[in-house]
Specification:
With 264 residues, the protein is α+β, with helices and mostly antiparallel strands. The protein has helices spanning 50-53, 55-61, 65-83, 100-109, 111-121, 151-185, 198-201, 220-230, and strands at residues 7-14, 34-38, 41-48, 89-90, 96-97, 124-133, 189-192, 206-216, 237-245. The relative contact order is 0.17.
Length: 264
């Protein structure tokens, strides 16, 4: 990629690849991504304007949820396109450098980590699996009786309902544990993420399992079939599968906090 005006927005680092990216692919700011090679690595970059991505305006933009969502979609679109043709190591959203030289300096400084992680992840993708306990149906009002139940009967019914709820919850947690063990045995690696908050995610039900699995691309069909077979095993449970993704959850050594705004 030749030098030109603007800052360099970096999506990912990968090994050189020959397959062409989609002809109409655009990235952050509506500009097509390009490839910047440095020895045995390639950075996938776009040129972005300083008025939006210099330190001060970027800090303000990151507080704008609409701008942030649009930027994240464009960023993810490039990563998804890369995942179809190579093994990318995604960098953090809004990783920006002053120029090509700054990007090359970053790649050289972290070359050993990048190459080691690329070797480890080559030919592999990430699948996400979430397990939800479906929302309980609202309890029906008790049938009218000839006369009110005694206080002892009322407490007995309450204890019975509490035990029933606890048993269902214990069964759900046991199913989540078995499911994770089963899927982990079919994957090369796995990561457990914190359960999602229903009020934030908007997904119905209680999230019991939120996990990522590293799977060889060649084994992905079998992994998907394995997940599909679990979907009807436990009544009241909902299994959701997403992917294949770039291996976000398995790039710890290259996802450092200082990437965002690392060099300007």
């Amino acid at each position: 990629m030749t030098a030109q005006g603007g800052l360099r927005y970096v999506y990912a680092v990968c090994r050189p690849f020959e397959a062409a990216l989609q002809a109409q692919l655009t990235g952050v700011g509506g500009t097509p991504p390009g490839l910047l090679r440095h020895r045995d690595l390639v950075a996938v970059v776009s040129t972005v304007p300083e008025r939006d991505f210099a330190e001060e305006p970027l800090r303000a933009h990151l507080e704008d949820l609409d701008w942030l969502a649009a930027t994240a979609r464009a960023h993810q679109g490039v990563i998804d396109a890369l995942t179809t043709v190579t093994t990318p190591l995604p960098l953090r959203l809004a990783t920006v450098f002053r120029d090509d030289s700054g990007v090359r300096t970053m790649m050289e400084a972290r070359e050993a980590d990048f190459l080691d992680t690329l070797d480890r992840l080559e030919g592999r993708v990430e699948w996400g699996v979430k397990l939800y306990a479906e929302p309980a149906e609202p309890e029906r009002a008790p049938e009218p009786a000839g006369r009110p139940a005694s206080g002892r009967d009322y407490l007995r019914q309450r204890r019975s309902r509490t035990r029933e709820h606890e048993e269902k919850w214990r069964a759900a947690e046991e199913f989540a544990h078995r499911l994770h063990e089963l899927l982990s045995s079919a994957a090369e690696d796995s990561r457990l993420h914190p359960p999602q908050n229903a009020s934030l995610s908007g997904a119905p039900g209680q999230n019991l399992l939120n996990a990522a699995y590293l799977v060889r691309r060649a084994d992905s069909e079998e992994f998907v079939e394995l997940v599909d077979r679990t979907k009807d095993e436990a009544p009241g449970m909902r299994v959701e599968l997403t992917g294949p993704w770039a291996a976000y959850s398995f790039t710890e050594r290259v996802s450092r906090p200082q990437e965002q705004g690392e060099a300007r």
